[in-house]
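Following up on my earlier thread - several people asked me to post the actual chain instead of describing it. Fair enough. Here it is, all 155 residues.
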Amino acid sequence: MSVYQQYRIDEIQRLFEVNPDLFDTKNSDMVKIKAKGISKVVATLPLNDHPEYGETILNISETLDDDGNIESYHYGWELSQRVKKRSKQERHITGFGNEDHSGPPMFEPDPYHHHHIPHLPAKRKHTSVKDLETVVEILKNYIVSGLTYDQSHTF
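Reply from S.P.:
Thanks for posting it. Predicted structure:
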């Protein structure tokens, strides 16, 4: 594991611990944060129950460059698979990323996108969201207040 991966693991753990209004800190056994290969960090963080969706998670996937900068990422709000295994489509609520989608169906000159349609993660539109901290603040609005996500919401 690189020092940069360890730094991101520590930062994700810190975000989890300082946001008990968002994250289910009582279920720390469900927290999974780890290095993958030489440049990737992946995490699954349990969220507090949502009145409509029930048990959900924040799924994090980051790839770091040689200098420790986040080169690509995906941050997804998903239904939990703790009790029932679900397909990628079935568990998807919303997500944000900058993964390379340079081919069809959407040629993106600006890589920042919002996977905005529940259960259809391939659909996406432009977003100004560019970091994990912003995603945490967005999810707080839904989890803390119990708002239902709608695909027309723009970030």
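The first helix runs from residue 3 to 17. That should answer part of your original question.
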